[in-house]
Amino acid sequence: MTKTRRYTQRKRAADREETRLRIVEAAMALHEEIGPSDTTISAIAQRAGVQRLTVYRHFPDETAVFEACTSHWLELNPPPVPTAWEACEGDDERVYAALLAFYRYYRGTQRMWQGAHRDEPKVPAIQGPMAEFRAYLHGVGEEIGKSCAAGGDSRLTITLQHALAFTTWASLESLGLDDEAKADLALAWVQGLER
Amino acid sequence: MTKTRRYTQRKRAADREETRLRIVEAAMALHEEIGPSDTTISAIAQRAGVQRLTVYRHFPDETAVFEACTSHWLELNPPPVPTAWEACEGDDERVYAALLAFYRYYRGTQRMWQGAHRDEPKVPAIQGPMAEFRAYLHGVGEEIGKSCAAGGDSRLTITLQHALAFTTWASLESLGLDDEAKADLALAWVQGLER
DNA sequence: ATTTGAATAAACATGTATGTTCATTGAATG
DNA sequence: CATTCAATGAACATACATGTTTATTCAAAT
């Protein structure tokens, strides 16, 4: 019979937390560099400078790592919020501000979004967050659409929702437009509809 | 010393060709169902009802199968050609006809294009054909842009090129538009710019 | 000084894919 | 009838990822 004794962790707990963070950040970097679906537990461990077993002790499986990874990444890279555009006076200014906010966000985070879109069907762990983000985008498009003079014109709303999508950013990027030009062009689409 | 004798293959050659075709079609079906990057030689062999070794005898490696597969698929699914729209009278009609032609093509071939876009970075064998198709699309957008009243307006051309892309079809599809509504909307973007 | 426990190091079993080798079958060809 | 050869069936070596087990190290906590 061993005597039970209270054992309050202080530095131990902190060390453990730090190891966990190293693992999460290694996973995050790999998700960005080679994409979620190619990110193996072995690679994460190697990158974190940790034994493979250590990863398993912190996370039951790949999905758990990915979840921790996603939420940590979103904390570091928060998507644009409505305050960035809802203060604008005119309709055009508001639409432009929102588009530009998202386009700049996409520029800074393009590798991750590229990979996330690509691997979404294969990696269940990112499907939830992706659906959530899409719903958010959808709502933003709807809100801005309603706030415009043309009221609830569905073509206006749909054009906004399309313009706000990452895939649209990527398409216009590949056509050589910088972020301002992209927002200009998408704004012109919207203005054309309002006529 | 064995006597050499001429040996003209007739049915043998035909049988061999048929086996090759079975392999190519199995690969094609798998590319469509699970995507190029998950399509293994083992799976192709199994699907074709053939030994794995038989696949290796017809194709040196995965890349060779994929190449044969791509060109065969393109023969069966030829992209829209300019004759489908260049006969149209007005600018609007021509733009609409071209957009609709591509949108209907994408609808019929969406699974393959979805997978091709997704796996393009991972599967070298499809990068060539994809680049070729993109160049074709790019040219189509440019031609139609030039043919319009607004002449060589770069925003017009870029909007057309964006509208013709598969990713745009997919984005508008996810927003609930049918192909006619997609073409209508993209046409409205173009018209708005011409103002 | 002793106990606790996070992390290491090394191995094992399992699964899957690749690419290659070899002997065998059996129908097409001469 | 004898020869040719596409395809089979089975095995082998290699590589890599998963998930688990065991014993060991060593600093933190008491």
UniProtKB/TrEMBL annotation, chains A, B:
The keyword DNA-binding applies. PROSITE patterns: HTH_TETR_2 (PS50977). Gene3D superfamilies: Tetracycline Repressor, domain 2 (1.10.357.10). Pfam families: TetR_N (PF00440). Keywords: DNA-binding. InterPro entries: Homeodomain-like_sf, HTH-type_TetR-like_transc_reg, HTH_TetR. Residues 40-59 bind DNA. The keyword DNA-binding applies. Residues 17-77 form the HTH tetR-type domain. This is TetR/AcrR family transcriptional regulator. It comes from Billgrantia ethanolica.
